[in-house]
């Protein structure tokens, strides 16, 4: 028999995996290794590299269709987080009584590793990567997975780690039921993806708080005490875990806070107190103080040495496309924040830089409310260069707040316009607030095109 850590679902029979991306192929490999009869079905085309993996593993698959009869006969279904619960096939499966779960839920059954799980509308990629970096420096055998890196299921199948740092999206959480986080982190909750939640903020908040389901008194729940929606959620959703809040506005003991001398202070019972001045952090900006607090709390729970934490927090280099410094040309700094696909991410970006900013924004508007940006645009932005197809609402929202708003015809055009508008000491910031798939395949391609255009100046 396979070594099964915690079983909640059928452990044999037919496993159907819907979606053949990173998470789906990983789930298929783990299912095969655990003795399931595995079938992978993708309504779109399957990438060549993933096809090769499935063929090498001897796993049956189909693309450009879903064979309903075969799928409805499954013992268990693992679905891609990109497939909504309202999809007719998912509804048919649930009506037939077939369990439909996420890759994370499926894989967690087969590991006794500690699971340190980070969610939030903004900052989760940075916090996840920083935590992973710090734990590596603490000589832990640590895996990185979830919404980032290699599939969690794939690693559970073929690797051997003591700890996983998991970036968890709300879409993943929606299909998680028995999963338990040893450490659960909610960084913040701001409006995003509301089209998946009946345009109801309370549904989105409920999804985020699924992170703390099934936690025990041995576990930890970390949250931002300065975030209004999180604080509201605390009154509704409870856990037996130990609460560790973090704040820049008030002292938190136990927890993390910013003292009067601008030191991050981390104080957990029976563990050495940690302090580090925010000027020593490699990641600057108010939002990154929160990210460092969350990562620092995880490291302190894990009992990393203070020196290891300081070295890590002082040397970490941010992920690509998130406030990534591209170049300084003629005294103008060019910043790639292509991963900022919602308004709150842009707020964080604008907050991080001094005036004068030339802001490149636009793309596929997800029903954005730009009101929260107006004060920062007034005080910091000297010009807006619009990209993408949805520019009307940007013009309407900011025409009274900044002197110049212009449209561009391509990323190259946008960067050239911005360079002409900028003078020494200014910042050209790509922070779109919108999805990318009008002009680009994804936010990575958008960021890469920005970087290419900057380097061509």
TrEMBL record:
<dbReference type="InterPro" id="IPR005762">
    <property type="entry name" value="MurD"/>
</dbReference>
<keyword id="KW-0133">Cell shape</keyword>
<keyword id="KW-0961">Cell wall biogenesis/degradation</keyword>
<keyword id="KW-0547">Nucleotide-binding</keyword>
<keyword id="KW-0436">Ligase</keyword>
<dbReference type="InterPro" id="IPR013221">
    <property type="entry name" value="Mur_ligase_cen"/>
</dbReference>
<dbReference type="Pfam" id="PF02875">
    <property type="entry name" value="Mur_ligase_C"/>
</dbReference>
<comment type="pathway">
    <text>Cell wall biogenesis; peptidoglycan biosynthesis.</text>
</comment>
<dbReference type="InterPro" id="IPR036615">
    <property type="entry name" value="Mur_ligase_C_dom_sf"/>
</dbReference>
<keyword id="KW-0963">Cytoplasm</keyword>
<dbReference type="GO" id="GO:0008764">
    <property type="term" value="F:UDP-N-acetylmuramoylalanine-D-glutamate ligase activity"/>
</dbReference>
<dbReference type="Pfam" id="PF08245">
    <property type="entry name" value="Mur_ligase_M"/>
</dbReference>
<comment type="similarity">
    <text>Belongs to the MurCDEF family.</text>
</comment>
<keyword id="KW-0132">Cell division</keyword>
<keyword id="KW-0573">Peptidoglycan synthesis</keyword>
<feature type="binding site">
    <location>
        <begin position="120"/>
        <end position="126"/>
    </location>
    <ligand>
        <name>ATP</name>
    </ligand>
</feature>
<protein>
    <recommendedName>
        <fullName>UDP-N-acetylmuramoylalanine--D-glutamate ligase</fullName>
        <ecNumber>6.3.2.9</ecNumber>
    </recommendedName>
</protein>
<keyword id="KW-0131">Cell cycle</keyword>
<dbReference type="InterPro" id="IPR036565">
    <property type="entry name" value="Mur-like_cat_sf"/>
</dbReference>
<comment type="function">
    <text>Cell wall formation. Catalyzes the addition of glutamate to the nucleotide precursor UDP-N-acetylmuramoyl-L-alanine (UMA).</text>
</comment>
<dbReference type="InterPro" id="IPR004101">
    <property type="entry name" value="Mur_ligase_C"/>
</dbReference>
<keyword id="KW-0067">ATP-binding</keyword>
<feature type="domain" description="Mur ligase central">
    <location>
        <begin position="118"/>
        <end position="297"/>
    </location>
</feature>
<dbReference type="Pfam" id="PF21799">
    <property type="entry name" value="MurD-like_N"/>
</dbReference>
<feature type="domain" description="Mur ligase C-terminal">
    <location>
        <begin position="321"/>
        <end position="434"/>
    </location>
</feature>
């Amino acid at each position: 028999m396979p070594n099964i850590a915690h079983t909640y679902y059928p452990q044999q029979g037919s496993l159907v995996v819907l979606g053949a991306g990173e998470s789906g192929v990983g789930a298929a490999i783990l299912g095969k290794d655990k003795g399931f009869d595995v079938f992978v079905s993708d309504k779109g085309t399957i990438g060549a590299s993933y096809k090769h993996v499935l063929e090498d593993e001897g796993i049956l698959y189909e693309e450009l269709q879903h064979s309903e009869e075969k799928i409805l006969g499954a013992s268990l279904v693992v679905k891609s987080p990109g497939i909504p619960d309202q999809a007719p096939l998912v509804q048919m499966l649930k009506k037939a009584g077939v369990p439909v779960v996420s890759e994370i839920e499926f894989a967690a059954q087969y590991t006794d590793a500690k699971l340190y799980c980070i969610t939030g509308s903004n900052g989760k990629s940075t916090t996840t990567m920083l935590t992973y970096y710090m734990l590596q420096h603490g000589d832990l055998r640590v895996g990185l997975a979830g919404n980032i890196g290699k599939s969690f299921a794939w690693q559970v199948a073929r690797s051997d780690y003591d700890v996983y740092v998991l970036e968890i999206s709300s879409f993943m959480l929606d299909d998680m039921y028995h999963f338990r986080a040893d450490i659960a982190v909610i960084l913040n909750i701001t409006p995003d993806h509301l089209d998946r939640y009946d345009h109801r903020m309370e549904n989105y908040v409920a999804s985020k708080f699924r992170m703390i389901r099934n936690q025990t008194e041995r576990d930890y729940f970390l949250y931002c005490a300065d975030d209004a929606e999180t604080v509201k959620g605390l009154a509704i959703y409870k856990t037996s875990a130990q609460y560790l809040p973090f704040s820049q506005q008030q002292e938190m003991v136990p927890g993390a806070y910013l003292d009067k001398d601008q030191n991050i202070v981390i104080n957990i019972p029976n563990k050495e107190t940690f302090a580090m001045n925010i000027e020593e952090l490699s990641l600057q900006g108010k939002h990154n103080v929160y990210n460092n607090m969350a990562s620092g709390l995880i490291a302190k729970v894990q009992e990393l040495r203070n020196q290891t934490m300081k070295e890590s927090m002082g040397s970490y280099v941010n992920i690509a496309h998130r406030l990534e410094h591209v170049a300084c040309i003629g005294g103008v700094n060019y910043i790639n924040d292509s991963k900022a696909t919602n308004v709150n991410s842009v707020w964080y970006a604008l907050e991080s830089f001094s005036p004068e900013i030339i802001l490149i924004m636009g793309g596929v508007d997800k029903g954005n409310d730009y009101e929260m940006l107006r004060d920062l645009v007034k005080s910091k932005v000297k010009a807006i260069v619009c990209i993408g197809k949805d520019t009307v609402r940007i013009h309407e929202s900011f025409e009274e707040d900044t002197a110049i708003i212009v449209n561009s015809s391509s990323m190259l055009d946008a960067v050239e316009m911005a360079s002409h508008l900028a003078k020494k000491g200014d910042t050209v910031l790509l922070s779109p607030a919108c999805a990318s798939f009008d002009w680009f395949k994804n936010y990575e391609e958008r960021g890469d095109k920005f970087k290419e255009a900057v380097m061509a100046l």
